[in-house]
Amino acid sequence: MPTALILTGGGAKGAYEAGAVAALAEGGLSIRLVAGTSAGALSAAMIAAGRADQLEATWRSLTRDHVYSLRAPTFFAGLLPGWLTLRALGNASSLLDSRPLRELIASSVELDRIRSSPIGLLVTATDLVRRQSRVFDNQTVTVDALVAAAAVPGLFPAVRVDDALLVDGGLTGRAPVLEALEAAAVGRALVVLSYAPDDHAAPPTTIRRSMEEAFETAMLHQIRRDVELARLKHPGTDVQLLTPSAALKLRPLEFDRDGISRALALGRADGEACLSALGN
After folding, report:
1. Which of 174, 191, 232, 265 has its CA 20 to 30 A from that of 221?
2. What is the C-alpha separation between 14 and 30, in angstroms, rounded?
3. Is the pLDDT of residue 3 over 90?
4. What number is the average pLDDT over the span 50-67?
């Protein structure tokens, strides 16, 4: 059955999705379109380029230094006294430098293969000025668009694309299932989510953890809403969720190699189980 894969990202948690979709692709699932935002955009681009066989190796090699670095103004702001720290941070464009992420995407994504691929690609970002979603496909996606799709506001700087300031597509739709179903006629849509149903957060004790939990809570509710809306708007399409069979215990910005390896292995196992259940 022609299937659309929708990847929701989640920073380092995206390793779970990479393991799952690699197993699905290798197992012969008929993928007509792959859609993603945030970290899911990179995996989606590699699947569309026909590089499912390289997906797990790419994720397994990741460390924090491959994704972001601390910006010098942010680092030195921490050495300033009280109100000067707040003033310095208030004028900063972002806390983190996304140049390592740009280099990773530029070296991992083959745009020529995506342009000619039989698998459709859909990547979403958010236009900060117009406050609306921006969608890229096989012909329009660029390295800038992929960097923008993962640019969490405040953490990473917005990316200028075609005179628009773009950031993480999760702000307007963490699971671009509705966009995917409007772009391709498929019998099934499989939304891959890197959060286990019983993966409850520990009480946040820092500003960073509080912000992470707030962002992820909003994201999870948005995904469930969009999945239910997709089922209502497209009753002829079988819309399913694939979620981790165990808690990942991996934070979005913690690119720990052991944690990523565990997430990849769990994703692969769950992907294989899903493929067996689907009968493909």
Report:
1. 265
2. 22
3. yes
4. 88
* Calpha distance 146→111 (Å, rounded): 11
d(CA 124, CA 118): 20
For residue 270, pLDDT beyond 60: yes
CB 91 within 8 A of CB 83: no
What pLDDT score was predicted for residue 217? Answer: 80
Residue with tokens 């820092």: 206
Mean pLDDT, range 145-154, rounded to an integer: 87
Give the number of other Cβ atoms within 10 Å of residue 12's Cβ: 23
Handedness of CA 138, 143, 145, 149 (dihedral sign): positive
Q: Is the pLDDT of residue 86 over 70?
A: no
At residue 36, the pLDDT reads: 94
Q: What is the mean pLDDT of the chain?
A: 85
Secondary structure of the chain in the HEC alphabet? CCEEEEECCCHHHHHHHHHHHHHHHHCCCCEEEEEECCHHHHHHHHHHCCCHHHHHHHHHCCCHHHCCEECHHHHHHCCCCHHHHHHHHHCCCCCEECHHHHHHHHHHCCHHHHHCCCCEEEEEEEECCCCEEEEEECCCCCHHHHHHHCCCECCECCEEECCEEEEEHHHCCCCCHHHHHHHCCCCEEEEECCCCCCCCCCCCCCHHHHHHHHHHHHHHHHHHHHHHHHHHHCCCCEEEEECCCCCCCCCCCCCCHHHHHHHHHHHHHHHHHHHHHHCC
Confidence label for 95 from pLDDT (cuts 50, 70 and 90): low
